[in-house]
Amino acid sequence: MRFETTLQRPVEVAGVGLHSGVSVKIRILPAPVSTGLVFLRSDLDNFQIPASWRHVARVSYATSLMHQGVLISTTEHLLSVFYSMGIDNAYIEIDNLEVPILDGSGLPFVRLIQEAGIRQSRRKRRYLHIRRPISVEDKGKRISILPADSFRLTCDTDYPYPVGRQSLELEVTPENYASEIAFARTFGWEADLDQMRNMGLIRGASLENAVCFTPNGVMNPGGLRAPDECCRHKALDLIGDLALLGRPLLGHVIAERAGHAMHAALVARIMSDPSLYEIVTFDQLASRVAAVLVG
Domain for residue 9, yes or no? Predict the structure, then answer.
């Protein structure tokens, strides 16, 4: 996309928070150019929390943002959809502390954006273009990003039976995301349920919004939406965490058994060193590619 976008009109949806179990309603509204994605806590006088790496608070089991002590939890699914569907600017009014989980995937949010429609502005989009390789590693897990002229993703996961090793590679476009990633739901294991509840987590979880694996298969009556649904959902989460860069990304991200904490570490590493990237418009990038082809 050459120009910044927002929504044509407001849309809203209600549900429960996956971890808090609280009832919550969000309303997504158009926003002016250069606003970015901004949460408004409507229960707290529309207190603003920008969706930015600067405000990452917690990255255990979900990505939470905090600004001046005000929290927004489980942001990754909604931000993943905004980022992949090319929405640059929007206000997200939310009347509680956690984004609703809905069916556990990004698909309901994709449908909301399609319902609202997308409006282009006259301001050129500015991309974050990776200039040299970056890597973060920890305990056999790794996430890297290589220079590229599009947003590409390689995601490798390795979970216990019955999931096993899975891998996914694709270019992230609105079309590819909507058909290949958005439907993938969050997931967990039956053996972990009691421990997570004792930690104050998954109070809103059910078979309507999460896949639950047993020692013998899948507890959900309808089964999986794809054999590699887990890997596709991890790709969804990864994109949502990368959205905290604040600009559309041009680079090839390679995640090997990475999670929210490692995603956040990569984003922080990129933003800590301006020599690792450049900010370019689509036209600037296209002219370089044309010059290389002519040369």
Answer: yes
Domain extent, residue 98, equals 3-124
Which residues sit opposite 38 in a β-bridge? Answer: 50, 91
Residue 217 forms part of a structural domain: no
Active site annotation includes 67: no
**What span, in angstroms and rounded, lies between the C-alpha atoms of 155 and 86?**
21
Convert 4-28 to b/e letters by CB count within 10 Å (16 or more is b): bbbbeeebebebbbbbbbbebebbb
Give the count of domains, the chain: 1
Between CA 83 and CA 285 the distance in angstroms is 20
* pLDDT tens sequence across 112-131: 999 999 999 999 999 999 99
Compute the average pLDDT of residues 49-67. 94
Alpha helix (H) residue ranges in 151-295:
174-180, 193-198, 229-242, 260-271, 282-294
Residue 200, domain member (yes or no): no
In a domain, 96, yes or no: yes
Give the chain's mean pLDDT: 96
Strand order in the sheet with 64-67: 56-58, 64-67, 70-72
d(CA 56, CA 62): 11
Cα 111 from chain centre: 16
Q: Is there a contact between 29 and 93 (Cβ–Cβ < 8 Å)?
A: yes
Helix, strand, or coil here: 280?
Answer: strand
| pTM for the whole structure | 0.96
Q: What pLDDT digit, counting tens, does each position of 187-207 carry?
A: 999 999 999 999 999 999 999
Give the three-state DSSP class for 17: strand
Q: What does the pLDDT look like over 1-21, one tens digit per residue?
A: 799 999 999 999 999 999 999
Residue 295 has pLDDT above 70, yes or no: no
Catalytic annotation, pick one of 19, 233, 252, 260: 260
CATH number reported for the structural domain that contains residue 118 in this entry: 3.30.230.20
| Residue 283 burial by Cβ neighbours in a 10 Å radius (0-12, 13-18, 19+) | exposed
pLDDT at 283 over 90: no
